[in-house]
Design brief:
- It is a single chain.
- By secondary structure, this protein is of the alpha/beta class.
- The chain contains 6 helices and 8 strands.
- Strands 1-2-3-4-5-6-7-8 form an 8-stranded parallel β-barrel.
- The longest helix is centred in the middle third of the chain and has 11 residues.
Length: 207
């Protein structure tokens, strides 16, 4: 069974409200907080107002690429449940977790088995390990078969250009699934109809 869905790159209140009030809401919603190269990046003042909402049963995730101390101090009072960290070494990850009392998703970008095996140095620190492509803000793929030997007790999330019609392929996997580009329209904006289709589909497979 699928553990749950994360919809990443939310940047407007209408889409966020739709997800939170859906009959099958996403387990996680992600916001691009400090990676300005991404088209999904949310400026701080907008972000601050965006997350001022009853998130109900959905966890809010702050997506951070190698955050500075200033980045972290700026968002420390915002309504987040997890920090999703890219390019942060284990020692700093532990420091961030301890200082801000925040659950951590460690994001590993994968192109080979050696990249996958880095989970071992984060597994005692992080609450969830996310295996993503090297594309960061671009919807790129990697070979998901590289994850076949991961231990069943590892709480893991998978990303990397996953499409809505791929969801059934994960029915026998114990992953959280992270999507962004596949629920966007041709202009790169989140598409309510695609999100609705995704959430209704996932409800059939969710644990």
């Amino acid at each position: 069974m699928i553990k749950g869905i994360k919809i990443c790159g939310i940047s407007d209140s209408k889409t966020l409200s739709f997800i939170l009030n859906h009959s099958h809401p996403a387990k996680f919603v992600g916001f691009i907080v400090n990676y300005k190269k991404s088209k999904r990046y949310v400026e701080f003042e907008k972000l601050k107002n965006l997350v001022l909402i009853d998130r109900k049963q959905t966890s809010f995730v702050s997506v951070l690429v190698n955050p500075t101390n200033d980045d972290l101090e700026k968002i420390k009072e915002l309504n987040f449940d997890y920090y999703q960290l890219y390019d942060v070494d284990p020692n700093r990850t532990k420091h961030i977790k301890d200082k801000y009392k925040m659950k951590i998703i460690t994001a590993l970008t994968v192109s080979n088995k050696e990249d996958v095996d880095k989970y071992k140095i984060y597994s005692e620190i992080s609450d969830i390990i996310l295996f993503d492509s090297k594309g960061y803000d671009k919807s790129e793929s990697f070979d998901h078969n590289l994850l076949n030997d991961l231990p069943s007790d590892l709480d893991k999330m998978i990303a990397g250009n996953i499409q809505i019609n791929d969801i059934s392929n994960f029915n026998n996997k114990d992953y959280h699934i992270d999507l962004s580009g596949s629920v966007e329209n041709s202009e790169g904006k989140k598409d309510i109809n695609k999100i609705d289709e995704l959430l209704n589909l996932v409800a059939k497979y969710e644990a």
